[in-house]
Amino acid sequence: MSATAVLGRRERTKQANRAAILEAARRVFAGLGYGAASVRDIVRATDLATGTFYNYFPDKEAVFRALVDEFAEEARRRVREARLRATSAAAFVEDAYRAYFEYVVEDPEMVLVIRRNMGTVRTLFGDTQLPASTQELAADLRAAVARGLLPALDTDYAAHAMVVVGIELGERLIERDPPDVDGATAFASGLFLGGLERLAGNAAGPIGGR
Description:
This protein has about 210 residues and is an all-alpha fold. The chain is about 75% helix and about 0% strand. It folds into two domains: about 1-60, Orthogonal Bundle (Arc Repressor Mutant, subunit A), CATH 1.10.10.60; about 65-200, Tetracycline Repressor, domain 2, CATH 1.10.357.10. Residues about 200-205 have low confidence and may be disordered. The termini are far apart.
């Protein structure tokens, strides 16, 4: 077997091991909660040795961070794509919220991980994922204002308010049975589109028809 083939096989093994650890961690954090879970619990949920776990993650916090980071980064990607496609104020707000809320309920197990460990999520990620989401949204708001899609507004205040509302409604959304994506999208969108109408002075009637 060539050196290239050997390296390729090793890389596939590494990827498979890491994926197995993350998948096991999802089940463990969803079932036991972050506080009660241990590295041993995660390893037991795989076919791997304990030493293999430590080849990829130094502790349970690291694997928890990896899970939430991947979930949050994909959520940000989907939401930003929706905003960048928007051709009206209504689409800018509504499509982004819908993309986020649909993603929140798309993965029930990961949703359970986040819901069961919301305190840990806030503690570990309050200074990373939230600022990143807010900065991206503020940049997109400035671009939308420059394009004439949105009226002039304080993009810093707006970005913080919109992100926090999304997070809080997303948390509430996953507590409902069944999750009400349409209701959450309509509420969040109506809240901010109404504010944008006031900022625009209602000069031309309701803002941002789709």
